[in-house]
Fold Cyclic nucleotide-binding domain-containing protein.
Amino acid sequence: MFAVSEPYIRQQAALSDAEVEWLRARSTVRKLRKWQSLLHEGEVWRLQCFIASGCCRLYRFSEDGTNRTLRFAVENWWVTDHQSYRTETPSVYNIEALAATTVLTWTKADWDELLLAIPTLKTCYEQLQARSYEASQRRIFSLISASAEAKYLEFQQTYPLVFNRVPLHMVASYLGMSRETLSRLRR
């Protein structure tokens, strides 16, 4: 399964063959069934997780018990709970597969060692974190300032690989609107 992801990894970071092999050797392939959880609220997240195939979502429950989708991840995307990973504290999030999914994971110890040993991987990882932060800022601004229609259109344009692969109630949750509102917008 690493071979499927290798072109993406090579495109993102100019790694030597030996560095790619080291990255592959430290990875673990995990296959998830549809709806299988990768992270449960209350667990400490200690993995770097790359989606080789399939689709996952990061979500949490609000005080009223409604689950709120924060992020989706499809092929060649990373999924993580940054806060739990960084602080080694229990997560308030859940990660689940929305389809049969294959992920590549690295333990925190292995990932930290790889970042120290492979400077180009560290640079790539820092750029990935910066893009993630920027996307979060854009999303927050959209949630607090855009109309429901604008949020919907932006989601369709920004995440075309996600839109047709996830249930509409999850898209509505991600956009911060009811399923009924989303259904009206789609008409």
